[in-house]
Design a protein that fits this description.
It contains 6 helices and no strands. By secondary structure, it is mainly α.
Length: 189
């Protein structure tokens, strides 16, 4: 793998790390927020350690390494693009994760949200998957697995909250039409 490939992946994580500063409504960095954010920091540090030759990822890919590097870059660039598309979808900033006082003002169902209920989280998962492909190591595998679990739990919690809100009926229909992290191209029956 080349240094340039690793830098693209690090850029994806830097962009995600900047979101609380450039987009989200200021909130409190609660213990839940830190638990959700932990894999982002750990994965970025692991990638930086690989870039600095402090950590050696598995080299089992052999002749497939160049193709895997390309695939990993596709995931990283897709992550960056989906974050950008999602940012462009919002008309107002949204709250940081786990802000109890934040009540929904409306349901966003256009743009990045037209087929995916949680495009930010989908973008984050693309970054983790790309990081694991480019640097297969126990740390990148653990961060991918942890992020998948914690983002799924966070998304489910947000969905329960929206279903219980004044927008519950609308959100229920929206859930039938869209996937949580993967686009749904046909509405569920």
């Amino acid at each position: 793998m080349s240094a340039g490939v690793l830098v693209v992946h690090l850029l994806a994580f830097v962009l995600v790390g900047l979101l609380p500063l450039i987009f989200f409504v200021r909130g409190q960095f609660t213990w839940r927020w830190w638990l959700t954010g932990a894999p982002f920091f750990v994965c970025a540090v692991a990638l930086a350690a690989v870039l600095a030759d402090l950590v050696v990822p598995a080299q089992a890919a052999g002749r497939w390494r160049p193709a895997l590097d390309v695939v990993s870059v596709v995931f990283a660039v897709s992550s960056i693009a989906l974050v950008g598309f999602t940012l462009g979808t919002h008309r107002i900033p949204i709250a940081l994760w786990h802000q109890e006082q934040d009540a929904p003002r409306h349901i966003v169902t256009w743009g990045a949200y037209a087929r995916i209920r949680h495009p930010f989280y989908a973008a984050f998962l693309l970054a983790f998957l790309g990081a694991f492909i480019v640097a297969p190591h126990p740390w990148t595998l653990l961060t991918l697995a942890y992020a998948l679990v914690v983002l799924n739990l966070t998304a489910a919690r947000e969905e329960r909250r929206l279903l219980a809100s004044e927008f519950g009926r609308e959100y229920e229909g929206y859930m039938r039409r869209t996937g949580r992290f993967v686009p749904r191209w046909r509405a569920a029956a």
